[in-house]
Amino acid sequence: MDVDDGDPGAISGKVAIRSGDNFKFKTYWVVLKGTRLLLYKNEKSKKPSRTLWISYWEAEKFDKETLDYFKADHPESVVDLEQFMGETKGYRCFATGGLFLLKFESEEVGKEWNRLVLDVLHANFARAEMEEKHELCSSFQRIVSEQTCEQLMGRHLLLESLQSAGFTDSSPLRPIDAPDKIKFGYVKALLGSDGDENDENGVWGESWVRLYFVLLPGNVYAYEKSSDPHPRQHLCINKIGVERSEKDKKVLNVSTPLRTLSVKFRDEYQMFDWLHGLMKASKESNAGTLLANMHRELNNTLVALMTEKAPLSDDDLLVQVHLMADEDWSGKKAKVRTFSLKKGGSFVLGREASVNIFLDDSNISRAHAKIDVDVRGGCRVADLGSGNGTKVNGKYIEPHAAVTAGDVLVIGKSTIVSVGKVVDQAKLDEALAYRKQQLLDKEQRSKSVDLV
To answer: 420-439: per-residue pLDDT in tens?
Structure first.
């Protein structure tokens, strides 16, 4: 714990912070500057990850009436409740982003922070304003206590679901290792922000977090990583309602009697696959109706993709590869290589030396995509399960698409392939713009890391 002599109101040290409905505390190196709490990843970081503007501060306490009601309704949870209250004992900080709970390394350290923060607040706010805030925050006691009870019941539901599935403290298995898994893999979920970035106003909000989901009969578990021993989120899905978001058709809202979880998929095909898994895992849902609607929609899309296009002439039996380096934003410096195709042949593109068309690009898979040319010159391209996917004229293909002279493919994130001798400049410009945006995003992420 350090005190800055140049600023008598400043103090710094390790603090564990929890926000919103997030059950997990995260440790930061926190510096008090005026009425701001600057949150750094560690003591050596040069730029704060987050900033909290303090509006009010008080020691953590619970509404006795709410807790007594909870104890009477759930007598088996009394011991857990007392333990939970002890675990979360700390200080409440009312800031621009909402309500935050702070825990310190010891009771003495917490009291020192409490004294300095209150001194700063009383120095910056009038007494009448502080009294008004105290009355307002006192009215939150019941709400916060009810939230505490709900979080505890969420923990109980998780433990009960694990035990009913045969996963106990002594069990060597975890849900992630269960033999009866219906579906598993990484999917994005909308959660209370637990990352390292603020929005432009320094406020914590909701963000899309990539989690590893495991779907079991009646339950879905979400882990931060596939190697984690304990899930971060749990949802009981015996009875669910599902609907696609009106704003983003790749977002699926999964509702249970207790809560709603929004998940974002890579494309409609991945959503269809997981929706089928949800239908199998639940006892009662409307997933079947949505599946039928999506099946018609996807079938129409596939028919359009598979519709025969004009065959390639003898002059157009080639592909031109534009390999984009990071500095080649405009495409003017792109090195163009040409490969000849043959009717009745298959040509695999990738970065493995044994493929037909070798591409020296770390962003593509060893065997990334395949071009098939039939004896009449009809041409199709198929993605071979690559990590970054394959686009034809700006749209991801799955599983394959018909192409003709002038069509443009984006392989991975940096290789652009034009089919035929004649290049459609508009399609090529669109593909180059896509690559430029990828590079800009990469540069922005790099700058953010360097500044932290």
So the answer is: 876 777 877 777 777 777 77
pLDDT of residue 450: 52
To the nearest 10 degrees (0 to 180), the angle between helices 141-164 and 64-73 is 30
Q: What are the distances in angstroms from CA 252 to CA 15, 172, 429?
A: 36, 33, 33
Band (138; pLDDT cuts 50, 70, 90): low
SS3 state at 419 = strand
Torsion angles phi and psi, residue 9, rounded to 5: -95, 0
In whole angstroms, give the CA distance from residue 271 to residue 243: 11
Q: Which pairing describes strands 415-419 and 318-323: parallel, antiparallel, or unpaired?
A: antiparallel
Closest to 116 measured CA to CA, from 7, 10, 2, 30: 10
DSSP 395-422: EE-SSEEEE-TT-EEEETTTEEEEESSS
CA distance 291 to 276: 7
Q: Which two tokens stand for residue 47?
A: 């730029």
pTM: 0.43
Residue 192: pLDDT band (50, 70, 90) is low
> Which residue in this structure is represented by tokens 């679901």?
161
- The three-point CA angle 147-151-153 to 5° equals 115
- Residue 4: band (very low, low, confident or very high) from pLDDT cuts 50, 70, 90: very low
- Cβ contacts of 139 within 8 Å, gap of 6 or more: none
| Range 122-131 average pLDDT | 79
pLDDT at 238: 83
As beta bridge partners, residue 396 has 391
Q: How many residues does the chain have?
A: 452
Region 4-26 average pLDDT: 67
Q: How far apart are CA 201 and CA 243, in angstroms?
A: 32
Looking at residue 123, its amino acid is A
* pLDDT given at position 347: 92
Q: Are 211 and 189 in contact (CB under 8 A)?
A: yes
Please name the residues in contact with 282: beta carbons below 8 A apart, sequence gap of 6 or more. Answer: 218, 237, 238, 239, 240
The dihedral region occupied by 440, where left means phi > 0, alpha psi between -120 and 50, and beta the remainder, is alpha
